[in-house]
Amino acid sequence: MGLHFDVQRALTPIGRVPIVSHNSPFHREVTQAVGVLSSQQIRAMLAPPHPLVAGLIDLDEQLQANGIDLTLRAIGTFTGGGRLGTGGDRVLPETDDLDFGADGLVRLAPGPYLARLNEIVSLPPGVMAIARPRSSLLRMGASVHNAVWDAGYSGRSQVLIVVHNPAGIELGRDARIVQMVFLTLDAPTDAPYAGAYQYEAIEQPGHEALEQPGP
Is the pTM of this model over 0.90? Predict the structure, then answer.
């Protein structure tokens, strides 16, 4: 028997819609009003074989009321320039990974850093995601910037950390740095993400991969 959440239709004029299409490998009997997934819905979607998020350090600590915290895997400095033109003209800058100390901390002077997250996020065709920095980071004088996670994306993502505090900050390996929030679409997209960053930084390609629907 599948999972089902009785969500009030009053949350949206559209009412309840399936999170995934019936022919998707993610299909379960889960319906959700168009909006943000709650902690209980996220927990239900962490079940194999296609978990919404894999590689969690501590589920009970990371799961929030309406999102899930993602943690720091690696962080590096930029060592070159980049270019973004048109028609696929894209050159990403080189980076140099920083080492965590014996205490598990890395010290960051003011400036930009590219950070890799621990968790593998695999979004079904009916869910997109955004992430916001933990408030503790903001209070320390650091910000986190990221793009939108499109429906259908699967991978271990990167975020941009900018340290504004002139005295610098310290971050620990596996520290929770952003909270990811999942938003349901009014219908599963028929054009899930298939861009250059699909399956990024997954050691075993296809391990948590989405099966793309056929034409």
Answer: no
